[in-house]
Design brief:
Structural class: mainly beta
Shape: globular
Strand content: over 45%
Largest sheet: 7 strands, mixed
Helix content: under 10%
Radius of gyration: 13 Å
Number of helices: 0
């Protein structure tokens, strides 16, 4: 069973930065794809960014140029560097690991951006 733990959330002013981490309890394999998602109150969960096992990245339009996803397989961790944060980025951020047709979610970390 894979367990994911997100960390790094918090309260930040608009224009500030945060780095989220998604740690895996087990080995992060090279073929695992990992994504960051977010869910704001009253809204559906949405994809923020995703990185494939080979390092290919995709980003939602609303974070392009501001957020960067990366992975360190040696540390079994995926990161989301968030810059130029806006109040509308306020949400619970979740990471999801896709492995051989199975999906594993973390418990989420709150990000709050004040104006």
């Amino acid at each position: 069973q894979v367990q994911l733990v997100e960390s790094g959330g918090g309260l930040v002013q608009a224009g500030g930065s945060l780095r989220l981490s998604c740690g895996s309890s087990g080995t992060l394999f090279r073929f695992d794809a990992v994504g960051w998602y977010r869910q704001a109150p009253g809204k559906q969960r949405e994809l923020v960014a995703r990185i494939s096992g080979g390092g290919t990245t995709i980003y939602a339009d609303f974070v392009k140029g501001r957020f960067t996803i990366s992975r360190d397989n040696a540390k079994n961790t995926v990161y989301l560097q968030m810059t130029s944060l806006k109040p509308e980025d306020t949400a619970v951020y979740y990471c999801k690991l896709d492995r051989l047709g199975n999906a594993y979610w973390g418990q989420g970390t709150q990000v709050t951006v004040s104006s």
